[in-house]
Design a protein that fits this description.
The chain has about 450 residues and is mainly α. Among the domains are: about 70 residues, Serine Threonine Protein Phosphatase 5, Tetratricopeptide repeat; about 100 residues, Serine Threonine Protein Phosphatase 5, Tetratricopeptide repeat; about 70 residues, Alpha Horseshoe (Serine Threonine Protein Phosphatase 5, Tetratricopeptide repeat), CATH 1.25.40.10. About 80% of the residues lie in helices and about 0% in strands. The protein has 26 helices and no strands. α4 packs antiparallel against α5. The longest helix has 14 residues.
């Protein structure tokens, strides 16, 4: 005949084998024999929790705390169950109680820090991660999480030190490599970011996120074929991820392979019918293919799904401009500006529409606004030069075209137009030099 402890050992053996149904039956028998044995409720709760049955687990941890109200592990485990249920407030309360009962409980600090992080309470998260590291300095996860807080706070030096410490403790720590790659990317160190994502894939060749992120870095570098290759592998591993198809479509669009782009955008929308960015991207691909009515439908649908999408209004404004609907274009660019006044692009494009309507003062004001937001905005400098040329303000035109040339020394049209301005100012030597440069760059004059 089994006594309580024999049954407990038998139940734990079954739990280790993941035979949860039998383990629960054994622990329930122990509880029948001794309804006040807290360890049996605790073990049964763990079986439920390991199966994702959080409510049942919580009920058992409640029983543990009824008999052993000062048991920190029961609060900790109940906190984990509440956290997985999405009840962050109760989870934080339980982790806090566990810490009160055991101030050396490193995992309780860490888990509470994770929840503070998810709630956007970065200072509290940082304090908890620091306590976790102080108490348990050999756990690489603690450094990775603190490094992420430092990254968001743009304390890049401290973040990098934490990721490096995590990798010293565990050289194949995927999150440490991945987060360090993200950090390098934020700093514009794209080659180092590529190396890190490649290391992640060496450790885990099936890491979809690493393929996607490396593809995005290749995209930013203009290495579209490599980006497409990574997005294709990501799609093979995760064929129901709309984001992958959207990004591959954008890479195809950059290569002017608009039909392939359109196929990917169709798939992204099929997988995620409310993906606003996919509708905007498909609209642009359809417009590039001359299917402008369908493009307009896509932009309209994007705006219906998200009436506050500045990007959707901007792209619809571009389409209206192409179709000669200048007032509609003005309305859309104005709406885009109201929704995101920091973006220089709608300012510049609205300036073009004003110029087409011969509202030159308004056009110049918009180009100035675009350049306040991005002093190296090539099109804004060039277009401002064109307006100054129309107005006969030759010095201002020369200055604007010179800025365009500074940004892009291969901009043949800027040389050509500056030559006209130089000629009007009687600077014929400079004008001739600019015309010759424009010809060298392939412009027929």
């Amino acid at each position: 005949m089994f006594d309580e402890m024999d049954l407990m050992r038998r139940g734990e053996a079954l739990r280790e084998k993941k035979d949860y149904e039998q383990a629960i039956a054994v622990f329930s028998e122990v509880i029948r024999i001794n309804p006040r044995l807290a360890e049996a409720y605790y073990a049964r709760g763990n079986c439920y929790e390991e199966q994702g049955l959080h409510d049942e687990a919580i009920a058992n941890y409640n029983e543990v705390l009824r008999f052993s109200p000062r048991e920190p592990a029961a609060y900790y485990n109940r906190g984990c169950a509440y956290s997985k249920k999405g009840d962050r407030t109760q989870a934080i309360a339980d982790y806090t109680k566990a810490i009160e009962l055991d101030p050396q409980y490193a995992k309780a600090y860490y888990n509470r820090g994770v929840l503070y992080f998810k709630r956007g309470e970065l200072d509290r998260a940082l304090a908890d991660f620091q306590d976790a590291i102080r108490l348990q300095p050999k756990d690489p996860d603690f450094y990775v999480s603190r490094g992420l807080v430092y990254t968001i706070q743009r304390n890049f030096e401290a973040a990098l030190a934490d990721y490096e410490k995590a990798l010293q403790l565990q050289p194949k720590h995927l999150k440490a490599h991945g987060n360090r790659a993200n950090l390098f990317e934020m700093q514009g160190k794209y080659e180092q970011a590529l190396e890190e994502y490649t290391e992640v894939l060496r450790i885990n060749p099936k890491d979809v996120k690493a393929y996607l992120n490396r593809g995005l870095v290749y995209f930013r570098l203009g290495r579209y074929d490599e980006a497409i290759a990574d997005f294709t592998e990501a799609a093979r591993l995760s064929p129901k991820n709309a984001k992958i198809f959207l990004n591959r479509g954008l890479a195809y669009a950059k290569k002017h392979e608009n039909q392939k782009a359109l196929t990917d955008f169709d798939e992204a929308i099929r997988l995620e019918p409310k993906n606003v960015d996919a509708y905007i991207a498909r609209g642009s691909a359809r417009s590039a293919l001359g299917r402008r009515e369908e493009a307009l439908e896509d932009y309209n649908e994007a705006i219906r799904l998200n009436p506050r999408s500045a990007k959707a209004y901007f792209h619809r404004g571009v389409l209206h401009g192409l179709e000669g609907r200048l007032d509609s274009a003005l309305q859309d660019y104005t709406q885009a500006i109201q929704l995101d006044e920091a973006d220089p692009h709608p300012w510049c494009h609205r300036g073009v529409i004003y110029a087409r309507k011969q509202l030159f003062s308004e056009a110049l004001a918009d180009y100035a606004a675009a350049l306040e937001r991005d002093p190296n905005y090539l099109a804004a400098h060039y277009n401002r030069g064109l307006v100054y040329r129309i107005l006969g303000q030759w010095e201002e035109a020369i200055a604007a075209f010179s800025e365009a040339i500074r940004i892009d020394p291969t901009y043949a049209r800027a040389y050509q137009n500056r030559a006209v301005a130089y000629s009007q100012k009687g600077k014929h030597t400079q004008a001739a030099a600019d015309l010759e440069k424009a010809k060298q760059l392939g412009l027929s004059i």
